[in-house]
Amino acid sequence: MGRKFFVGGNWKCNGTTDQVDKIVKILNEGQVPPTDVVALWNCCIAEVVVSPPYVFLPVVKSQLRPEFQVAAQNCWVKKGGAFTGEVSAEMLANLGVPWVILGHSERRALLGESNEFVGDKVAYALSQGLKVIACVGETLEQREAGSTMDVVAAQTKAIAEKIKDWSNVVIAYEPVWAIGTGKVATPDQAQEVHASLRDWLKINVSPEVADSTRIIYGGSVTGANCKELAAKPDVDGFLVGGASLKPEFIDIINSATVKSA
Ligand SMILES: O=C(CO)COP(=O)(O)O
């Protein structure tokens, strides 16, 4: 085991300079176990990565406490050039942005990003030295049709076909019906998909990758429901939307402590 708990905060398309200042203040003042204890616990406390909109990345990166990192919410699928409005992986690397979220369901649904396109993006971002939070998840219709695992497997397969090294990838399982709806997956529902996804990796990639890859849950995670979810053996952390803009994000980070209980 030894998968370090991972908590991502996806700010989505939110924030003004004033709001960003406030969120950074909350993050910087939040009580999380100190570094020496973290070192002692090793796998038991969180790797924390917050993802503001592109325009706020430099300011957040420069003001954020050093043990927290930043992620972009997207990047272009290949080398930059004549692609108006896009931001390339090289630019993020150049700015020292270590992480990028790719394949979020909002981009898949609203901007038509296909499984293959997301797979290409993951491969290109990794090739530029970025670490990737790759999002997968089914819609309500797909869940009700009993095809959750088929959907999630197809999304993961499109990535697996394009990459060899999984050490810089975190998979975020985010059921679409749970995103921004207040309708969180039950701990058992999350565990079931996470365990199936880990089995899929074991069979289709390798037992080592299955064992070491963090699979985090996203979809209406709050300070109130995080501990129960975190207690599940295959839930390695969270990708948090709405609650990542609020003080309760600190409580979500601290749910990592249930892994040491
Ligand atoms: O989409 C999400 C994180 O990427 C989840 O959003 P909410 O936590 O607001 O449901």
From TrEMBL:
Gene3D superfamilies: Aldolase class I (3.20.20.70). It catalyses: D-glyceraldehyde 3-phosphate = dihydroxyacetone phosphate. Pfam families: TIM (PF00121). The keyword Phosphoprotein does not apply. Its EC number is 5.3.1.1. One of its GO terms (cellular component) is cytosol. Belongs to the triosephosphate isomerase family. This is Triosephosphate isomerase, cytosolic. Homodimer. One of its GO terms (biological process) is gluconeogenesis.
